[in-house]
Write a structure and sequence with these properties.
Layout: E1 10-29, E2 35-56, E3 61-68, H1 80-92, E4 96-104, H2 114-129, H3 136-146, E5 159-163, E6 167-170, E7 178-183, H4 190-200, H5 226-233, H6 239-245, H7 248-258, E8 263-266, E9 273-276, H8 280-290, E10 297-302
Parallel strand pairs: 3-4
Antiparallel strand pairs: 1-2, 2-4, 2-5, 5-6, 7-9, 7-10, 8-9
Helix pairs in contact: 1-2, 1-3
Length: 307
């Protein structure tokens, strides 16, 4: 197969949103050791920005430049965004130069999907720049090969995500929810969290339907309240493990609860925690009232409404 060549000077910019997990349950463990999960993913209106530029080259090349809050994030071939570009070029048989510029705002190892979202944005951009190169199923396979959260970020909208991240069901009636985010400034390794979880619960080998999380859906129905829905849905099975590895998580949860959150939870494998509020103003007041120490990364955002 002859490598594809494309005209020089093609640039596409896109947003790479963070996400929070509105509940995360570990429902089983596969024979290959991977854990089966169920989680309601809610993308945020806050995240990174990604620029993808394509130009002529005799051979495939990828270059990446990071800006902003990029301490401890590699700007080399181990970066997920870089890997996404390289994998796309290889799978599509492209001979071109791909230059990535990523403006980082999401902290690393935070459970907000920063690296995965960057990778998803790169794949989306390249899919738009080379619309005939890879079909949807091949793009989804590339995404899953990069990481469990990356397939979600190919089309980041509220969704129930199951399995190892490959089964995605859009949630059509999730409203925008004001969120106070706080991170202790300590990166948590997802792999370490799951290794510790597996050591504590080695017998978790099959699906457990009683552990499925209810959907935060039907929000306009009679009797629905955020507190009632959150009480049933926001449990994160990884939270006790994350607190064991990073005790400040527990303190942040208490601080956000005391500042007036209707519900609190932990996103992904940590270490970011969040509180849900009735309004952005209430969330801003809580941010001031919480009195987080200077080392804590904190801000107010909102989940994106179903579209």
């Amino acid at each position: 197969m002859n490598p594809r060549r494309e005209p020089a000077g093609r640039i596409l910019r896109c947003h790479a949103p963070g996400k929070i997990n509105l509940g995360l349950r570990v429902v089983g463990r596969r024979a290959d050791g991977y854990h089966e999960l169920e989680s309601l993913f809610a993308p945020l209106d806050f995240g990174d920005d990604v620029e993808v530029a394509v130009s002529d080259s005799a051979t495939p090349e990828v270059e990446i430049k990071l800006e902003g809050a990029c301490d401890a994030i590699p700007a080399d071939a181990t970066n997920l965004g870089y890997r996404a570009a390289a994998d796309f070029a290889k799978a599509a048989g492209l001979n071109c130069r791909i230059e990535l510029r990523i403006e980082k705002r999401l902290p690393v190892g935070a459970g907000l999907g920063g690296g995965s979202s960057d990778a998803g944005a790169v794949l989306r951009a390249l899919g738009d720049l080379f619309p005939d190169a890879l079909d949807g199923s091949r793009l989804a396979a590339l995404a899953l090969g990069l990481g469990a959260d990356v397939p979600f970020f190919l089309d980041p909208r509220p969704a129930m995500v199951r399995g190892i991240g490959e089964r995605i069901e859009a949630v059509d009636d999730l409203p925008s929810l004001p969120v106070l985010l706080a991170n202790p400034g300590i990166a948590l390794s997802t792999a370490e969290v799951f290794r510790t979880f597996a050591a504590i619960q080695p017998a978790l080998t099959k699906s457990a339907p009683d552990r499925r999380i209810p959907r935060l859906s039907g929000v306009t129905g009679p009797g629905w309240t955020l507190e009632r829905a959150a009480e049933r849905s926001l449990k994160n099975d990884l939270e006790p493990i994350a607190i064991r590895l990073c005790p400040p998580i527990a303190r942040l949860l208490r601080q956000i609860q005391a500042a007036g959150a209707q519900a609190v939870g932990m996103s992904g494998s940590g270490a970011t925690v969040f509180g849900l509020f009735e309004s952005a103003q209430a969330a801003e007041r809580a941010l001031e009232a919480a009195g987080f120490e200077a080392s804590v990364w904190a801000r107010v955002a909102a989940t994106q409404e179903s579209r």
